[in-house]
Design brief:
The chain is α/β, with parallel strands linked by helices. Helices cover 21% and strands 23% of the residues. The chain has one domain. A five-stranded mixed beta sheet has the order 1-9-10-11-6.
């Protein structure tokens, strides 16, 4: 048997293979507590999906409609980092307050079931799944793996979040029917995004005063016609 034609600098992750037993992929349970950064106006349990016509979902491990994926994290800092994403990179170490004002971090008990563990060494040695799956910009390929794990009976995927450096798996992709699931439980008290950003050591840039003034109509008193006196 010959060696691989790949070099260390090559992209090594291949698509799911038909000769591998994915139901036997290494797995473990979700963390006891999960965190999800979200808009204050929305519920935490929303499962995003790719379209049936071959479209690519916006989430890394989105399943194809009518299945979907809801993204959580193992700690509030990871959750907020994944929501902010590229906005963390514009001016490292800082974040505008306006990005946080309408956000919060929901919490919930760990989801039940077995989760494919991309951090397990056997992912690479026994299933040819390299660490690239957690970080790749090829969402089509990542979503093919999500479908493979869903069909193999997993409740989701444990992986390393993209915007938290090189970490052990600290993010949870949970599979379910596409769309909002208002019947799933979550804790009533959310954590303010501003509080978590400060815990991350970020300098929060206050919203400029002019942004507040734009919310009001400034009227010149001289332009206002005085009401007529009653006779």
């Amino acid at each position: 048997m010959g060696g691989s034609e790949l070099n260390h600098e090559d992209y090594a992750l291949t698509d799911p293979r038909g000769d591998l037993d994915y139901p036997g992929f290494p797995s473990r349970e979700a963390p006891e507590k999960m965190y999800r950064a979200k808009s204050k106006a929305n519920g935490p349990w929303y499962f995003s999906s790719a379209t049936k016509d071959g479209g690519v979902g916006r989430g890394r491990f989105d399943l194809t409609d009518p299945r979907g994926t809801c993204y959580w994290a193992a700690d509030p800092q990871t959750a907020l980092g994944e929501r902010l994403g590229p906005d963390l990179l514009d001016n490292p170490g800082t974040i505008p307050e306006s990005f946080l004002a309408q956000a919060e971090i929901a919490t919930a008990a760990g989801a039940p079931g077995r989760f494919a563990d991309l951090g397990d060494r056997r992912a690479a040695t026994h299933f040819a799944v390299t660490g690239e799956l957690s970080k790749t910009a090829d969402y089509e390929q990542a979503q093919r793996y999500a479908t493979t794990f869903d069909e193999a009976g997993f409740a989701g995927i444990l992986y390393a979040a993209r915007y938290s450096g090189d970490q052990a798996p600290n993010a949870i992709a949970i599979f379910g029917p596409t769309g909002a699931d208002n019947g799933r439980a979550f804790d009533p008290d959310a954590i303010p995004a501003l509080e978590v950003a400060r815990d991350m050591g970020l300098t929060v840039i206050p919203t400029p005063a002019e942004e507040f003034s734009n919310a009001f109509t400034i009227v010149d008193p001289a332009s206002v016609t005085a009401p007529k006196k009653r006779q």
